[in-house]
Design a protein that fits this description.
Length: 282
Amino acid sequence: ILIMVLMLSLSNTNISNSREFLPISKQMESHKLALEITGKGGYQENCLNLKLKNQTPDTLFVKLEPGRRIVCEDSSYQDIFIVKEKLMILPPLASLTAEGYGFCCRASKGSPPKNARFNIGYMAPAGWIELAEVINRNNFPTNAVQNAVWVLSDNHPIASIHHEKMEEIELLRQTVAKIKGITLPWYSITYEKDTAMLFSERPERIYGKFVYYTNKNTIISINIRSTKGRLMATLVPEETKNPGNHEYKMNLEIKDWPKGDYDICVYEDYSNLNFKKRFSIE
């Protein structure tokens, strides 16, 4: 029986998501299900242990929903935001151990230690649930998902959602921008690593690409200036370009740059402004 329970409890299998599967909180409220949640000593992915006990003579069909915030009983540690659905079938009076897949809800709190205790918590606001459902249907990189959660929880800039292959996380970034009601930035920013905290808030590099056009053979130079006119970096000192569209891929260290707006300026023949594009360090 135990082997059958474990097999049926696997998430993202071919188990039909029918009406039989009731939210885990509903099963607990009706006293059909006993649940104990503890931490595995991390704050991302499969970081929760779930111990379930069917207290009835009937089979239970249990669903842990994406969008549920699992609350740590020690408020100095992180809550965990569930982003992957877990469907579990418990035969009569059976017990089951499973994992909960989620991410920490605040960058400012500590990672829950192993065996930290949690309660079932509550369903997060609508925007959070929308994000969780998109994550549930896709396989986004771990760091990108964590930063997406922090954009909602800590108001981090959307530019902090980064991956080497940006096309793989475009849907994730678009979803967060829609929830926040703001324009999706054309660039992304990575931050310095700090073993003393989950998120250092210190920008390290900026990535992005843009296209500009020249209508003749010309010498191009590209630099970055603050909105006060201060020259911050020279990306291209000089380069000859033929007529047509030209793409520039930016990968630039921005350690210790002040917060604020910056303009990328493309000049023809050193002085004629061809193109300007702005980014922000928040």
